[in-house]
Write a structure and sequence with these properties.
Blueprint: H1 2-12, H2 23-40, H3 62-71, H4 75-88, H5 91-106, E1 111-116, H6 122-135, E2 143-144, H7 147-150, E3 157-158, H8 159-162, H9 183-199, E4 216-220, H10 234-239, E5 252-256, H11 260-265, H12 271-283, H13 310-318, H14 322-325, H15 331-335
This protein binds adenosine-5'-triphosphate.
């Protein structure tokens, strides 16, 4: 870390070729860096009694750091990346991108939900939107509910550290929350309410605009397993979904239907197979009966036909020639697939 700090300082102060930083200053700079990293994850050096404290006199506050980081992006570089990404973007992704950017450009209360099943390019759109907004010198806060999901987003952070959402969310977290609102939607209601309160301080007209007039974009797939509500009834679980909350009434749902992952990975030989698979996935959940249930027919090639040792058969399918490759350090990362939901 000290090496990195000296390198960054030298790059920043290009004219000081022989830059020397005293040991005490270097130690303090390291501690400030550690403190910043901890704060991004909702912790602080004060949580670790054996650690020395940083002299934080010159330390920017975490809130300021987010803004400084956001405004530090190189606009020209982002503009170029954005132009390159627009050359790749698919037609329906382009419609979603343009609609959201229109809201950013005209500042017109956009609250969007990008709804698409896995592989339809939701993250690709996030990345394109992020460079588009940053190329204009504007701020975009990419947040996800879990630390691992933030890795997929450019400059991503956890929602609780960025928006200072209390980790334990309950009825007491905000005076204005409705008592019966399901826990999972409280965060969004709270953010909506807080943005109203903050932004309407300068201009009362913003009080009635969703999220105080900010463009807010969510994404996900409603076919995923629903949120867990401890000891909740079926109704509680349905209510916990964002589309049961009152803010959903002003949400603009943008749908993605083309599986970009299959298109990106298959050659002409597998085209028919991937096309069929691409059609089968979204068909699940389309024809539910009045109880919300349906029979799903699993294609033959996805079934494990070995009834004697199905587990070994699955392992052989996912990791063919496992014994021959056991010494290859890249074998498992190549075959592994970590799923996350942003
Ligand atoms: N326009 C595009 N051109 C080329 N590749 C694309 C495009 N859009 C998406 N992809 C590729 O398709 C794959 C799936 O995209 P992405 O991860 O954005 O989908 P997703 O909907 O976020 O998936 P998941 O819900 O599983 O996270 C990725 O490898 C991505 O790079």
């Amino acid at each position: 870390m000290t090496y990195e700090i000296i390198k960054v300082a030298k790059e920043t102060l290009e004219e000081l070729i022989d830059l020397r930083i005293g040991d005490d200053d270097l130690k303090n700079m390291c501690l400030i860096e550690i403190e910043m990293l901890l704060q991004e994850n909702g912790r602080s050096l004060t949580d670790f009694k054996s650690m020395p404290m940083a002299n934080t006199e010159d330390m920017p506050t975490f809130k300021k750091k987010i803004i400084v980081d956001e405004l530090n992006y190189n606009k020209d570089k982002r503009e170029k990346t954005h132009a390159d990404m627009l050359l790749m973007i698919a037609d329906e992704q382009r419609c979603v991108h343009d609609k959201i950017m229109e809201s950013v450009d005209f500042d017109d209360d956009g609250f969007f939900f990008i709804y698409g099943y896995s592989g339809t390019g939701k993250i690709f759109i996030w990345k394109t939107l992020s460079v588009a907004v940053r190329s204009k010198g504007l701020i975009v806060l990419n947040v996800a509910s879990s630390g691992i999901s933030t890795l997929l987003l450019p400059g991503g952070r956890t929602v609780h550290s960025t928006l200072t959402v209390p980790v334990e969310i309950n009825e007491a977290s905000s005076l204005k929350m409705e008592k019966d609102s399901p826990r999972q939607t409280w965060c969004m209601l709270q953010i909506d309410q807080s943005m109203h309160d903050i932004i309407s301080k300068n201009d009362p007209l913003y009080e009635f605009r969703p999220f105080g007039g900010m463009t807010v974009v969510l994404s996900g797939d409603f076919r995923h397993i629903l949120s867990v509500v401890r000891k909740g009834t079926r109704q509680d679980i349905v209510d916990a979904s964002i589309n049961s909350s009152k803010i959903w009434t002003y949400c603009n749902v943008l749908r993605l239907t083309v599986n970009m992952r299959l298109g990106a990975s298959s050659g002409p030989a597998e085209k028919e197979e991937t096309d069929n698979f691409g059609k089968w996935i979204p068909s699940i959940g389309e024809d539910n009966d009045e109880n919300g249930e349906m029979n799903v027919e699993i294609p033959e090639d996805l079934l494990i036909s070995d009834t004697t040792n199905p587990l070994m058969s699955l392992i052989d399918f996912v990791y063919p020639d496992l014994n021959d490759n056991i010494g290859d350090p890249l074998f498992f990362p190549r075959k592994g697939n970590t799923r996350t939901n942003a």
